[in-house]
From TrEMBL:
TM region(s), chain numbering: none
UniProt protein name: DNA-binding protein
SUPFAM superfamilies: Putative DNA-binding domain
GO terms, molecular function: DNA binding
Protein's UniProt keywords contain DNA-binding: yes
The keyword DNA-binding appears for this protein: yes
Residues covered by the Helix-turn-helix domain: 8-56
Top-level taxonomy: Bacteria, Bacillati, Actinomycetota, Actinomycetes, Kitasatosporales
Organism: Streptomyces scopuliridis RB72
Top-level taxon in the UniProt lineage: Bacteria
Keywords (A to Z) from UniProt: DNA-binding
Pfam families to which the protein is assigned, alphabetical: HTH_17
Amino acid sequence: MVTVADRLLTVNQVAERLGTGLRFPRRLIEERRITFVKVGRHVRIPESAVEEYVSAHTVAPIVLRPASAYLYRRAA
């Protein structure tokens, strides 16, 4: 949800925050995969929308068991 206090970022600022080129945030906008605001002919993306996008696409690491647990198995 976009609030009035939410800072609106330009496409350049979003690309910089995500560490990508300009094309990626523009594609997110075109495909309607991120919330954006039209200000006249300009497009702005709320800061909260960028945070939501990042948190929704964050992949948690897999926790593996130590290798030693596999070394000492008994045969059935």
